[in-house]
Fold this sequence. Notes:
The chain has 294 residues and is an alpha/beta fold. The chain folds into 2 domains: 3-78, CATH 3.100.10.20; 87-292, Four Helix Bundle (Hemerythrin (Met), subunit A), CATH 1.20.120. It has 11 helices and 10 strands. The chain has helices spanning 52-60, 87-96, 99-123, 129-137, 146-159, 172-193, 212-217, 222-234, 242-249, 275-281, 284-292; strands at residues 3-7, 13-17, 20-25, 28-34, 38-43, 49-50, 65-68, 74-78, 255-258, 261-264. A hairpin with a 2-residue loop joins β2 and β3. The longest helix is centred in the middle third of the chain and has 25 residues, at 99-123.
Amino acid sequence: MQRVVDLSSDGLHVAVHRGFLTVSKDREEMGRVALDDIGGVIAHAHGLTWSNTVFVRLSERAVPVVLCAANHAPVACVWPLQGNHLQGRRLNAQVDASRPLAKRIWRDIVVAKIRMQGAVLASVGAEPGAFDMLARKVRSGDPDNVEAQAARRYWQAFMGPDFRRDQDGEGVNALLNYGYTVLRAIISRAICAAGLHPSIGLHHSNRANAFALADDLMEPYRPIVDRAVYNLVQDGLREVSPKAKTALVTLTALDLPAPQGMSPLHMQRDLHSNWRRFLIRRTWAWICLRHLTR
Length: 294
């Protein structure tokens, strides 16, 4: 299993030594991980120092380094320039993709997300029927914003009528932020490895968002994080503790269906060189949709 390295303790120094990522404090080594075993690095500690070689060696392996704020939400990411030997051709195809195509694929992503939300609600004993109906209402580009309608129903049914999703909030919201950060790192790495550019999205197009495509493709998988956070809350964990982070990081090894059979989430990055076939046939949204509608 590829590991997500979480750097959350203050005053750490991160370096590379003989094929390993090393973490030390006060010149005493605290741990090491083989570079080839790393799927992503998440940093949200104060006083963290790095060797420049760290970024070079991780970028050579298409491993993203995600920098987070105090609320565990990502604010920046180090992305490798050379993610694939066909990168130039794939980037051109990505840029040339038509707007109608992007809108149709965004519809499929929204449908997959809504159906996954319904499946998660059913798993905790809530009524999921409305979500199948909402999924049927989604049109190309989701001009009616059915995604937002589903979100309002989903959070109240899932976390209770008093819950409000707040990206700057503490407690459960901070747990969700951390889980989404892990998911974003996984998908960002898959995008880099495919030779695509994460800033060229399908729906998310904020100029300040360098990872619009990752934010698009992770949507159907957010409910998986939500379910994991629900389990933590049921166990009495409502803060981003080491135990909670360990539970959320293990989502990278969650087995999901793929065209070749069951595959861990972190390995679902077999992306076609053709941009259209990649988006239509091999996105995580398509895999998720196929699984939920069997």
